[in-house]
Prior knowledge:
4-stranded antiparallel β-sheet, 2 domains, alpha+beta, 6-stranded antiparallel β-sheet
Amino acid sequence: MNSAANEKTGISRRDFLGLASLGTAILSGLAVIAGIFRMSKPNVRYEESTRFKIGKPENFPVGTVKKLDDRGVFIFSTDDGLHAISSVCTHLGCIVALTETGFQCPCHGSKYNGNGKVIGGPAPRNLAWLEISRHVDGSLVVDTAKEIPAGTKFKLAV
Ligand code: FES
């Protein structure tokens, strides 16, 4: 009976088990090799730094406002110095627009006055004032992770 079955399929049970073992060994070896390659890459997510250069002070003449959309910040230059206000709405993170009286969020209508204080809409907090410092190469640096009290100005050395 066994030889009749062999003639039907053309492969013996012993050969089948040998091939299955070989296939399993090859698949296991490939999984080990894939694991080795995967382990060689660190499982780290690189995030953008919260500190970034915004250029030299002369790029911010008194009386100007620059909106850095990609960084989510406005840079104001006044007689008193420079200040940076976050352009990220404190409601759900949309980028606010500058208006004649302050800022307005296009998403759900939050309104802020010129100092970033909430004056309407669902925003739970004021817009953040962000620290400005100077890099050793003379350029200005904003750190979006460092909030400072509203009204704090960065004075340019005379
Ligand atoms: S995200 Fe700005 S009001 Fe909702």
